[in-house]
Amino acid sequence: MKYFLTISLLLTAGICFSQADGRRRPVSVELQSSRQRVDVKIDGKLFTSYYFPGPDLVKKPVLYPVYSPGGSLVTRGWPLDPRPGERVDHPHHIGIWFNYEDVNGNDFWNNSIQVGRSEKKYGTILNTKIVGTTSGKEKGTLTATSDWVDHSGKRLLIDTTHIVFHTRGKPVYVIDYEVVLSAPDEDVFFKDVKDGMFAIRMARELELKYKEPQLLTGKDGKAMKEKIVDNERVSGSYFNKEGTRDDEAWGKASAWCAMAGKIGKEDVTVAILDHPGNFGYLEGRWHARGYGLFALNPVARKAYDKDQPPLEFRIRRGASARFRFRVVVASQKLGNVQLDRLQQEFASQK
């Protein structure tokens, strides 16, 4: 069986988007071994990097940073590359990532270099190999593997990732993210908890406005001494397939959810689309927070609604599980029509 994670950067045929030009842009996927990252460039400009600096800096591989087709940063910089006016919270929220809060009692989600000594058991995801990369006029590829290890260093899961990058012009890029987890040595149980599983930490502009004071970075990128209220650049708004908006989108079930806002003069939409082949499709919940955490948790339900029974997700010894998610990054406003079609197209993939 072929296990793969596909990242497609495309303008989907049959879906109407405004478009500056339709020419195909070359995709470069290049390993920067000394920097422990694989850079993905479209038409010579960085789109994202598969970043695996190791547990002394980040406790999991991530896609970081992420740019819009128009060149705006859509992911938060802090704590790695802080920009002025960013929230100083949750140092484990970096770029785009895939992990979970409770895997056989180990917390992979909240682990970071700022955790310090704790009685809590933390897990780490270690890149084991960049198997290969290719570049081309219309696509590029990346293949990588990782181990999920528990607090004692014992391997629980093998993570196999294959990435294919496609581009067909602006202003929409799509990331089709597929990961296969294999349990070679023992049963692995994912408890029904809040923090998981596929997530993005959004840029400050793509947050909701709040009246409460927040701890932000100053002009020097360091945390300010006092909390302040500053919504000058904040313009984000969540909406899902059913029309639920903003804070009300948290804890709901939906086939997709999107964040729309403005970065400078650029309209930006970032959406995550679920796949019907996933465990917990339309049963899991959206962990979409106004402060910039944008996540889909397909293996938890009771953690969001105490009146619901828990979802029980387990990978038996010797078995595997596959998860697929689509991320849409657009330099324009997208609505239900475009996102429904993108989700339907994604759902048709076997």
Structure, described:
With 350 residues, this protein is mainly β. It has one domain (27-347). Helices cover 3% and strands 36% of the residues. The protein contains 1 helix and 18 strands. The strands form 4 sheets. It has an 8-stranded antiparallel beta sheet, with helices on one face. A 4-stranded antiparallel beta sheet has the order 1-2-3-4, with no helix packed on it. The longest helix has 12 residues, at 336-347. Mean pLDDT is 92; it is low at 1-5 and 9-14.
Concise description?
This protein has 350 residues and is mostly beta strands. It has one helix and 18 strands. The strands form four sheets. An eight-stranded antiparallel sheet has the order 6-7-8-9-18-14-13-12, covered by helices on one side.
Q: What tags apply to this protein structure?
A:
350 residues; mainly beta; 4-stranded antiparallel β-sheet; 36% strand; globular
What's the SSE blueprint?
Blueprint: E1 27-32, E2 37-42, E3 45-51, E4 62-66, E5 96-100, E6 124-134, E7 139-149, E8 155-166, E9 172-182, E10 188-190, E11 196-201, E12 237-240, E13 256-263, E14 266-274, E15 285-288, E16 293-297, E17 313-315, E18 320-330, H1 336-347
Antiparallel strand pairs: 1-2, 2-3, 3-4, 5-11, 6-7, 7-8, 8-9, 9-18, 10-17, 11-16, 12-13, 13-14, 14-18, 15-16
